[in-house]
Amino acid sequence: MKIITVHELADFKGTILIPVFETHVKSLVPIEFQGVSVSSKVFYGKKDTSYHSDKYDCLHLFIGLGKTPDYKSVFTMFRRISLRNKEHFNTNTALVLPDGFQAGLAEAAFSGLLAGTYEIGHFKKTDSHPFLREGFELALLAKGNYTETADRAFRIAKAKLETLRLVDLPPNVATPQYLAKWAMEAGEKYGFKTTVFDRQTCVQLGLDAFLAVAQGSAREPQFIIMEYTPDNLTNGMKHIGLVGKGITFDTGGLNIKTAGMLHMKSDMAGGAAVLGAMQLVSDLKLDAKVTAIVPACENAVGNMSFLPADVIRSYSGHSIEIIDTDAEGRLILADGLSYLTKNYKPDYIVDIATLTGSSVATFGYECGALFTNNESLSKQLQQAGDDVGERVWPLPLWEAYRQDIESEVADVKNFSGKPVAGAISAAKFLEFFTAGHTAWAHLDVAGVAFGDDEFAKTKHATAFGVQLLTKFIENL
Ligand code: BES
Ligand code: MG
Ligand code: ZN
């Protein structure tokens, strides 16, 4: 999909999308475009409303923006329009932007249109969306130049589409090796370097916490490392380290899940967000060095599964007492974080993971939980999230919570054993493996990475984190 800028639509035949700001239900002036007008009694631009009118060989699709639209609502409205009106885009399609339409909102609109091509029926025979057709052109009528905005928006949407697909694919397809292959291919295509450690290499390196989780599964674990280096790298540029949880399926292990297991193909959503962010960071050629790690494996039940009460080692050298095999995400992240700090020494570290049910109990489906001891990093991540409609909100890492993970037999234990403060004690566990790094943040996205919305009838991916991480890096 690409845009071509036009200066008028007088002789245009086809579908015309016309987003309009909210006026007033009692407005005497109707909303109008090229002789097609709508009485405000019928449509006045209210958020989440639209009005279709068929006149002069054109389908006019008026889209209500509301009074003061934000990034997320514009993205969602355009995604909806794109998905629900598939049949109307098999013709010429135009978009008319209101005068002075903010570039940020235009970005949300363009990327929403492309994101609307996404459908979760990856194994069904369905016609692909017209926007995905080779050479599809959207005619754009606007005061001002939106070419760069559209180009950027399409790159954003492309990265999100990849993440959506990776998360929604079933666990027998999106295996650790599948994710590793994706990272290799995306690295080739977008320009980052990918290295993958298989089980044997991980054994040699001593990534024991990661291996403990992987040992119950016949599927080969893959420790994926991606490095993006800008062409014009300078000393002043920042180096960001990312770590994403890549559990391709979480059965709970021997502490097997009694609820919610069906949705646990989404337990690699943090990893998929990191993969999508790597694609986007490279595609946008951002001025920062980024090193990302996605430890990918399955938490399976098998005769080799690790046991509750096991004491294992980790890459950091610390020993870990296993209280619960379902607290596996923090184990693979521990090795991811240690490997990153020891071998790459980034200026900032952000990890992202569907880590705890507790974070869902706390924040529901509205925002991710943010943990960091670095006040400015906290603000930067919140700001980035607000900018793109992927919000995060802080929870504490106070020393008082340290006792929750203190073990009598090992250096640390992987679960407090208590049904309280689960997201916080998980974060405290991760902190233990950051080697005192002063700019580390942890995002627990269990509530926001996968869920219900209008875009499908069953729970599905949101690609939460792709834009948040990219925006954070871009803003640094
Ligand atoms: N993958 C889950 C967390 C999760 C829960 C993600 C709901 C998405 C939705 C994680 O590995 C897990 O099992 N966490 C346990 C930890 C507990 C055993 C300490 C939890 O939160 O219950
Ligand atoms: Mg688990
Ligand atoms: Zn998990």
Automatic annotation (TrEMBL):
The keyword Magnesium does not apply. Belongs to the peptidase M17 family. GO terms for biological process: proteolysis. GO terms for molecular function: manganese ion binding; metalloaminopeptidase activity. One of its GO terms (cellular component) is cytoplasm. InterPro entries: Leucine_aapep/pepB, Peptidase_M17_C. This is Leucyl aminopeptidase. Keywords: Aminopeptidase, Hydrolase, Manganese, Protease. Coiled coil: none annotated. The keyword Transport does not apply. Residues 165-469 form the Cytosol aminopeptidase domain.
